[in-house]
Amino acid sequence: MKYILLLSLLVILIPLAAIDFDFYGYYENQTSLTLQNESQFQSYNKLRLDFDKDISSAFTINSDLVFQTYHGLRTINLLDYIPSQSVSDYSQQVGISIDDLASSFSDSYNDEYFLDNAFLSIYKKHFNLRVGKQQIALGSGYAWNPTDIYNQKNIFDPTYEKRGVNALKLEVPLSLNGMISGLISLGENWEESTKSIMIKQYLQGYDLQLSYSRLIKKQMDYYTFQENKEKTDMAGLSYSGTLLGLGFWGEGAYFIPEKTDEYLQAVTGTDYTFDNGIYVMGEYYHNGGGEKEASDYSFNDWMDLYTDGTNLARNYLYLGDSYSLTDLADWSNYIIINLDDNSISYNPWIDFSLSDNVVLDVYAIFAIGDKEAEFTQFEDSLAARIKVYF
Fold first, then answer.
1. Which of these, 98, 187, 281, 357, is most buried using a 10 Å CB contact count?
2. Among 239, 236, 270, 238, which residue's Cα sits nearest to residue 253?
3. Which helix (H) or strand (E) element contains residue 114?
4. Which of 79, 70, 65 is nearest to 109 (CA)?
């Protein structure tokens, strides 16, 4: 596989060298060590190559190539990250032994290379149009973005870059400080395509956005081994701004499924930087589609957590602080609390600036709570990530 990746890289770069592209990117390595049970290493190498080209004042093209190789532990069994009682109950209900189920719930990390972004931008006096695989970022939340139906977020690393989404995006200015946007991400047909319309406005120090989306929510039912599809409407609101030195943000998404119950997902947060440079933040998340107690977590709920990032419970709190240790090192602490099952994840980070273009992050994940709770299913671990920009 590594020779295929190298050959593909050369085939792509040689012809591009003759074109006047703006060329940049980064190399990244992350290595993590689990601290529970049998200590194991997981590692990856990632090379991202970005190419931009201004065709004219009205047309630009952008593309991002990613090459990623995995090392160490490359195959995991998702059943190992679900409480044993839930796995046992599920095994009995479907009539399949746990040993026989294991092969169906293994997940492998395979070497890959792909176009993360590849899009054409058209800039005109009365509109902007972007066509192709592109970054889409919706909502103002930090750890959670209920209104962003296009991306899956990792709450343990919420600022990490999102992958591109194949879409068509049209933006039309409404005024000096306002804009209306339309977004379509194509599915197999028009019915299964995700459609959104957003109205953005900057008003008295606040960024406001109203949105409406229609999508097909897909969910695998692991008891019947069938994928359920349901047409769903979503009405959203997000805001961000400052008041008396405090930063405020929030967003809410009201989901109206065609057949099942309606529910609300909402986030509200605030942050502040003290005169001595210490930064603190807090964010509350309400997941109206979640469960009230840990005893209500179903096998489907656990699988949604690992495949779609859908949290299990209804109420969460995210707390963080950071401050500078030196001019080249920052220390941060993040605590994620499941307020319903009382499990906690503590995530300390140290960021080192090794040079203008080299950053080293060292972080850990520690869990506290009952063995049947959400965050205690994630193994305690240490990790180091180095990124070199060029």
1. 281
2. 236
3. strand 112-123
4. 70
